[in-house]
Design a protein that fits this description.
It comes from Bifidobacterium myosotis. With about 375 residues, this protein is mostly beta strands. The protein is built from no helices and 22 strands.
Length: about 375
């Protein structure tokens, strides 16, 4: 099903990588989301978790899949996971200390076991080795894609835990900063990437098209708008999900919570992609609801909330409903979503109210009340 436009996942998560797998627990297809755990100073996360959904609206915390405690060659900055299934194994590619790591598991829920050394180490190639993704070409070969300032692609080995750095392909588009993501729709190849600094409000997604992965690319500009008036900024690092058996494509991206400074508290959102007949993509617009400047978009002072599912930032006096926090304070939450479905998080220590509600009026975003419970 199409994702509600700009539906947020209510937890601080960045660098989203969405994918569909057959859930080993049920045997049915399910959406999986791998992302950076956010809300830490200096992007200081040390763990990875997985989140799952049957509809891209209601999400369940699937638990921790890898900790840097179990990565023998790194200790900090666990960022930007990417996932691949090959055969009956699952492979996780991730950032740690400016290097690319690899790990494997028997289930998309993990636990993943890290290799004993980086897949791409600091001195292997020039540049800063972050933000991996995986592209599978028409021959079925899997390519690791990564880089900051310089974009690299290299074929993964048969074991998917090694990479051939002697066969590196390099294409770095103008303005490229990081987070390249390739995909193919019909006869058109797409490249999407982030430009500008991840700490800045101008961090954003650009895209290009080509009729050949290694051919000439035509750049088309910004894919996701920003709206500083409602504090929706830093709409950068992203992943793209193709819903199998359809021509439906979903963009997952993150944006800032500017009230918490320097891009350390980012929220993952989802929006459908709309393609024109010439293969270009309609620029994704943003909600126009203004913030309540009298109370602030996040009135809770308790910094522990940085580890909790975040409150929405698309908030105005007429378009927000009350919610309780674990500290007993009241805050306001809102959704800017298209269908009459409210996003919620389930899992250990999280409880939510009202999954479905009456359709909102045309001039108000969809509302929900939410109770956030402190993690045990």
């Amino acid at each position: 099903m199409p994702a509600p436009r700009h539906t947020p996942l209510h937890r601080y998560l960045a660098d989203p990588a969405p994918i569909v797998f057959d859930d080993p627990k049920t045997g049915s297809p399910r959406y999986f989301l791998y992302a950076t755990e956010d809300g830490f100073d200096d992007w200081g996360s040390r763990t990875f978790r997985v989140y799952t959904s049957k509809d891209l609206v209601d999400w369940t915390d699937g638990g921790q899949i890898l900790s840097l405690d179990d990565v023998p060659w790194g200790d900090e900055h666990a960022w930007a996971p990417a996932i691949l299934k090959h055969g009956d194994k699952y492979y996780l590619y991730f950032v740690c200390e400016g290097q690319i790591g690899a790990a494997w598991a028997d289930s998309p829920y993990g636990p993943f076991e890290s290799t004993g050394r980086p897949l791409v180490a600091k001195d292997d190639l020039p540049g800063y080795h972050i933000d991996p993704s995986v592209y599978t070409d028409e021959e079925g070969d899997d390519w690791l894609v990564w880089g900051n300032g310089i974009c690299y692609s290299a074929p993964l080995g048969e074991d998917r835990l090694s990479v051939d750095l002697n066969a590196v392909w390099q294409w770095t588009p103008r303005g490229f900063r990081e987070a390249m993501w390739y995909f193919k729709r019909g006869d058109t190849y797409y490249a999407t990437w982030s430009e500008n600094d991840a700490r800045e409000a101008t961090y954003q997604v650009h895209y290009a098209t080509s009729d050949s992965l290694h051919g000439q690319w035509s750049e088309h500009g910004v894919l996701v708008e920003q709206n500083p008036a409602i504090n929706v900024v830093g709409t950068g690092h992203h992943g793209i999900l193709h819903i199998p058996g359809t021509d439906e494509w979903i963009l997952a991206y993150h944006c800032f919570d500017p009230g918490y400074g320097n891009g350390y508290c980012r929220e993952t959102r989802f929006a459908p992609l709309t393609f024109y007949d010439d293969g270009t993509i309609e620029q994704i617009g943003l909600p126009t609801t203004a913030l309540d400047n009298r109370t602030g978009h996040r009135p809770i002072a308790d910094r522990r909330m940085a580890r909790m599912p975040p409150l929405m930032d698309d908030c105005s006096p007429v378009a927000c409903g009350p919610c309780h926090t674990h500290s007993g304070r009241f805050a306001r939450t809102a959704h800017a979503a298209r269908p009459a479905v409210a996003t919620r998080m389930n899992g250990p220590g999280l409880e939510s109210d009202q999954a479905r509600m009456p359709a909102p009026s045309p001039c108000h975003p969809l509302l929900t009340s939410r109770r956030l419970m402190e993690h045990g």
